[in-house]
Amino acid sequence: MAVVTALVLARLLGFEPVRIPSDSMAPTLIRGDQVVLDHRAFIPARGDLVAFADPTGAAEDGLVVKRVAAVAGDQVGLEDGVLVVNGAPVVEPYADQSRLDGVYLGPLTVPPGRLFVLGDNRGDSVDSRQFGPIDADSVVGRIHLRLFPSPGPL
Fold first, then answer.
1. 27 — phi, psi (to 5°)?
2. What is the residue range of 76's domain?
């Protein structure tokens, strides 16, 4: 009964448990991980893990989780697999470094009201490299806590 009460209270406060359906965010999140989706209002920033409406329509539940790589006004690109934002390489300890080599993109400027999102597992992620920058209004929340299998902040 206490677990049910806690879940109902969490949803009322704007939190929702979500299961990760793919390995596109590995090693940060892997298929089957349970995370907390925080629906409370926020302004997405570089590095945030966000959930948004799937622009491809392929996701089971209609949502996709990716990392914000660049925000409106940023110039973003990939140079030999290295993320470059506003002319500076970005250190990405969360990304699967074994899959970053030999990829080039951009640079492009993120339009107003949009976000450039990437999966941490670049070799197994459909993200802004394919569907372009997403509408910031499509973001339904952010993820900063794993529930299962190893609980804790991300």
1. -85, -5
2. 17-149
Say whether 150 is catalytic: no
Question: Is 21 inside any structural domain?
Answer: yes
Q: pTM for this one?
A: 0.87
Catalytic site includes residue 24: yes
Each residue's pLDDT expressed in tens, for the chain with a length of 154 residues = 554 444 444 555 578 899 998 899 999 999 999 999 999 988 999 999 999 988 887 766 778 999 999 999 999 999 988 999 999 999 999 887 776 767 788 899 999 999 999 999 988 899 999 999 999 999 999 998 999 888 888 8
Q: Which of 24, 125, 128, 138 is catalytic?
A: 24
Q: How far apart are CA 103 and CA 107, in angstroms?
A: 12
Alpha-carbon gap, residue 117 to 129, rounded angstroms? 8
- Residue 7 falls inside a structural domain: no
